[in-house]
Fold these 2 entries.
Entry 1:
Amino acid sequence: MSQQVSPPPPNKLSSLITKEREFSWQVAANLFVSFKYAWAGITYSFQTQRNFRIHVSFCALAIALSLFLHLSPVEIAVIGITSGLVLALELLNTAIESLVDLTVKQTYHELAKVAKDCAAGAVLVSALVAILVGCTLLLPPLVILIMSKF
Ligand SMILES: Nc1ncnc2c1ncn2[C@@H]1O[C@H](COP(=O)(O)OP(=O)(O)OP(=O)(O)O)[C@@H](O)[C@H]1O
């Protein structure tokens, strides 16, 4: 049986909206500062996560190959979107890992395991899709190019 959850009264909702960042240690002052923090997150992942470095290398290779092989704009866009999805999920995986470690520290917790395993699973699913897309779009013209050289 589903439980009925009533929405908060309007005055409570407005106080939530105005105070939503009250627990933040610091709030980015402007868009440029926001980009700076986003870049800091990307460089942190690159420096600390081996899987992120591997994915960046494969995504760069796939995009470079798609340009080199003169794929259609739609095909290049599909490879770009797929690559972006893998990298974005890898960044979210790092964020979830950090949050879990911050919460439970070095203690074992079944829910910490679920959170980390599911985040890693999301990356794996996106990587498998990226391999499928890469093989479908890149392999045929690559094989034709290699065969033409012999
Ligand atoms: N606090 C914890 N409680 C329970 N299980 C944990 C905990 N920390 C890690 N684990 C288990 O160990 C696994 C590896 O943890 P880790 O923090 O290295 O994540 P990871 O996803 O393997 O990292 P990476 O993406 O860098 O390879 C997790 O997927 C989870 O199953």
Entry 2:
Amino acid sequence: MTLAGIQHSLFETDVDAGPTVHPLAGAVRRRHLSDGAWVDLRPGWLTGTTGLFGELTDQVPWRAERRRMYDATLPVPRLTAHYPAGAQLPLPLLRTLRDRLSDHYRAELPEGFVSAGLCLYRDGRDSVAWHGDRIGRGADHDTLVAIISLGSPRVLALRPRDGGRSLRFTLGSGDLLVMGGSCQRTWDHAVPKSPGAGPRLSIQFRPPGVR
Ligand SMILES: O=C(O)CCC(=O)C(=O)O
Ligand SMILES: [Fe+2]
């Protein structure tokens, strides 16, 4: 086989085989934080994500977000798309992922995951500042927010809301991180800028009434 032939077939394996969704049971590791907050990690939940990353970057109707800060409306340095409960998701695979997560977390989250948020960090200059997902129920109830990372590795940082050291989780393509318990109200999270980083996108699944 020629070198070109080998390279072609490697490329095809990665792109055309499509993503594989691996089991959650027995593979999710929980880390308890303070104040009843926790984080679950399942590295490599999906493999073969190159094509999926490309399809989502190309097909999702990305919007530039603006956020009200004090008395100004400032652009948020990332692109987003939001699919509320009942909306058609951009790819059938996303439904599969949402349903797998709902099944896995059924005992802790009987209502399941219903909405999807997508964020595109075009390069290392895109980011999201410290915040909790506290619009709605997350403000005063325990809840779960599941994040799947695709594309270039980026840090998702967490820190206690009342001060303290931050934790940094580097998420690679196909990794799953779930924030649970009191995490949205007692801890904040952020995706810090990362000079030189390539594009990354995240898919977040949330229960009813959580934003
Ligand atoms: O992109 C991420 O991993 C985090 C996104 C996030 O925290 C949010 O959109 O609320
Ligand atoms: Fe968030």
